[in-house]
C-alpha cells in the first residue's frame, strides 16, 4: 500500500477514535438528567441516547463540520502531522478529564488542539481564521447562558401550567415527557458533536487531494462519524454522569425535562448557525438554570465553579498538548 494512503487511513482511524471518545466522554450530557431522575436505568438510557446520536444527521445540516474543517484554521496549511497533533492533543485532554470525572468540552479540546497544532506549524497565529474561532469562543459563554435562560423560563412556564395539578400526577406526566426531551437532546448532541470529526476528516481528504473543495463532506464520512459517536455513547461515561446528574443540583422529572429541552433548543440553534458549541457547557447551564429556579442555594456553586474553570483551561491545555504532539510527530509530513 502507498505510504501516503496508509497514513491517511491511520489518521482517519485516529479521528474516529476521537469521535468514539467524544461520545464516551460526553454521554453524560445526553443521559445525566434522565438517569438522575430515575426515569431510565443507566443501561437503557445510553441505548436510547446512542440511537438518537446516530440518526442525528437525518435532521440537521453540516454547517458545524464545514466550520471545523475550513473555518478555524487555513485549510491550505493542513498536513498529516498537523492533524495527528490536533487529534492526539484533544484525545489526551479528554482522557485526563474523563479520568478526573471533569465534564470538560471535547469540542473545545479539539478546537484548542487545532489552533495549537497550527501555531506549531507556522510559528505563530497567522493561520488562524479569527471569524470562525471567535464564534466558537463566544459559544463558551453564549451556549450555557442560553441553556440557563431557556431552562429557567421553561420551569416557570411549566410550574404555572401545572400549578393546580397534584405532584403525583405531574410526576407521572414528566416521567413520560422526559423520554421525548432526552431523545431531543441526544439528537442535538449527535448533530453538533459528530460534525467536528467530520470536519477534521474532510480537511484531511482535502489535504490529500481526495476532495477538491475545503469543507466538502462525503456521505461515508457522515455515517461513520455518527456511528462512532453512537458507539461511544453506548459505552457511556458513568463517572461524569454522577457529576452532571446529581452533584450540581438534585433534579425532579419536571426539572429534568426542562433542562433537556432548554439544552436541546440551544444545540439546534447553534447547529443551524454552524457554530461548534459544547454540549457539556449547554447542559450544565440548563441544569444550573433549573436548580436556580428553586432557590440560589439549591445549586452547588463550588462544583459549578470547578466545571467553569475546566472550560477556561481546556482551550490552552489542549493547544499545548497539540504543540507537544506536533514535535513528536516529526516522522510525518
From TrEMBL:
What keywords does the record list, in alphabetical order? Membrane, Transmembrane, Transmembrane helix, Transport
Any one GO CC term of this protein is: membrane
Database matches in InterPro entries = Phos_transporter (IPR001204)
Signal sequence span is none
Subcellular location per the Swiss-Prot or TrEMBL entry: Membrane
What are the TM regions of this chain, as residue ranges?
Answer: 41-62, 82-102, 108-128, 140-163, 217-241, 303-328
GO MF, one annotated term:
phosphate transmembrane transporter activity
Classify the protein's membrane topology as the record does: Multi-pass membrane protein
Q: Which Pfam families match?
A: PHO4 (PF01384)
Q: Does the keyword DNA-binding apply?
A: no
Q: Provide one Gene Ontology biological process annotation.
A: phosphate ion transmembrane transport
Question: PANTHER family per the record?
Answer: PHOSPHATE TRANSPORTER
Task: Provide the protein name.
Answer: Anion permease
Q: Which organism is it from?
A: Caulobacter endophyticus
